[in-house]
Write a structure and sequence with these properties.
The chain is of the alpha/beta class. The chain has helices at about 30-40, 55-65, 105-125, 140-150, 165-175, 210-215, 225-245, 250-265, 310-325, and strands at about 20-25, 45-50, 75-80, 90-95, 130-135, 155-160, 185-190, 195-205, 210, 270-275, 290-295, 300-305. The structure holds nicotinamide-adenine-dinucleotide and the ligand O=C1N[C@](c2ccsc2)(c2cccc(Oc3ccc(F)cc3)n2)CC(O)=C1Sc1ccccc1Cl.
């Protein structure tokens, strides 16, 4: 009041205006890129950073707070103590052990499962109604692990899955067709990473299915061109790693976009890792794979029944089998 003369008593905030709080666990390359994008895009009222390294955590918090003059107002806190996450609407988990060169993915997984045993239960305890958004790799299996450890209903446990794969796919298609990537709808589904499945029939540009778009634009295409673009999605991940040692910006924007869809109840469809058994003949146990899912304030609101060719469905079932074999070796 000392700084402002009230000209009219402000009306109390409407009861429906909710204070939204996001916790990001893991203040590394990915976690901080997500945090920075959440701040820039005004996704939440409060942001909490959690990590195991206290000094790095405080440094990142102060550095972000010092940008306050250029950002929408967001309260920023940081702690090694999970109590600070109390009442989070969304908890984004990027914490993870880094893959040691030559380390098997199974060994990396077992190290990250051990970390998750110390991360997920306190998040669930302090925010029993929160939505968990898992980014740490291997993301599909770790989303399953988070689901089991949290005891949450499956609609409130989501993996970033092939969201990043699909955003790279959209960029590459847009670049190939010289259009805006925001006008390209294209889904990569299934297992995140090397074994993902590109849905050719899902690709549309400005609402026009790509195959007929290419014919109308007389752009010569063969199936091999689209397959090369999918291969480039995978190769580009390795290229970024070889050039800068990690990935951050694309995963940061893509996960912040998921956070916005969830917290702003956008009811948009995103390719994210959800419980997939029961779809496309996937069976044999609970398995998380990416499918186009509608996201809102309740988490996963529904999964679209997108058309898959027999080959695409077969590859999804193969990924499910591989993941289940790995999951069956885990003690969660
Ligand atoms: N799903 C995707 O598309 C995608 C894309 C890129 C990276 N990733 C994954 O994201 C993860 C993080 O990558 P990064 O580059 O940020 O790694 P990083 O090493 O930079 O950051 C990981 C952070 O986790 C913290 N941490 C470790 N154990 C912890 C614990 N018990 N509690 C809290 N914090 C803990 C570390 O201190 C570190 O700050 C990796 O698993 C990576 O593979 C996933
Ligand atoms: O861009 C990325 N950077 C990554 C990374 C980030 C920090 S260290 C490694 C990266 C890159 C390449 C392979 C690689 O190998 C792994 C290792 C374990 C695992 F569970 C999944 C992928 N990880 C993590 C990751 O998932 C992506 S996205 C991606 C990865 C491979 C193929 C296609 C895509 Cl879209």
């Amino acid at each position: 009041q000392a700084f402002f003369r009230q000209i009219q008593r402000a009306a109390p905030p409407s009861p429906t205006k909710r204070h939204t709080k996001i916790s990001v666990v893991g203040a590394g390359n990915v976690g901080m890129a997500i945090a920075q994008t959440i701040l820039t895009q005004d996704v939440a009222d409060e942001l909490v950073l959690i990590d195991a390294k206290a000094d790095k955590l405080r440094g990142e918090m102060l550095d972000l707070q010092h940008a306050a003059a250029f950002l929408p107002r967001t309260k920023i806190h940081a702690s090694v103590d999970y109590e600070l996450t109390f009442g989070s609407d969304l908890c984004i988990v990027t914490a993870g052990a880094r893959q040691v060169p030559g380390e098997s993915r199974l060994n990396l997984l077992q190290r990250n499962v051990a970390l998750f045993r110390s991360i997920i239960p306190p998040l669930a305890r302090y925010s029993p109604e929160t939505i968990l958004l898992i980014v740490s790799n291997p993301v599909d299996v770790l989303t399953y692990v988070a689901w089991k450890l949290s005891g949450f209903p499956s609609n409130r446990v989501i993996g970033s899955g092939t969201n990043l794969d699909s955003s790279r796919f959209r960029f590459l298609i847009a670049d190939h067709l010289d259009v805006n990537a925001q006008d390209v709808q294209a889904y990569i589904v299934g297992e995140h990473g090397d074994s993902s499945v590109a849905l050719w029939s899902s690709i549309s540009v400005g609402g026009v299915p790509v195959l007929s778009f290419l014919e109308k634009q007389q752009i010569a295409y063969e199936k091999v061109t689209l397959e090369n673009i999918h291969k480039e999605v995978i190769d580009s991940a390795y290229e970024v790693i070889s050039l800068k040692g990690y990935t951050s910006w694309a995963i940061g924007y893509s996960v912040a976009n998921l956070a916005r869809s969830i917290l702003r109840d956008q009811r948009k469809v995103h390719p994210v890792s959800v419980v997939a058994n029961g779809f496309y003949g996937i069976e044999g146990g609970d398995v998380f794979l990416s499918l186009p899912a509608q996201l809102g304030r309740g988490g996963v609101l529904g999964v679209t029944n997108v058309h898959l060719t027999d080959e695409e469905a077969h590859r999804l079932r193969d990924s499910a089998k591989t993941i289940l074999e790995v999951q069956n070796q885990l003690e969660v």
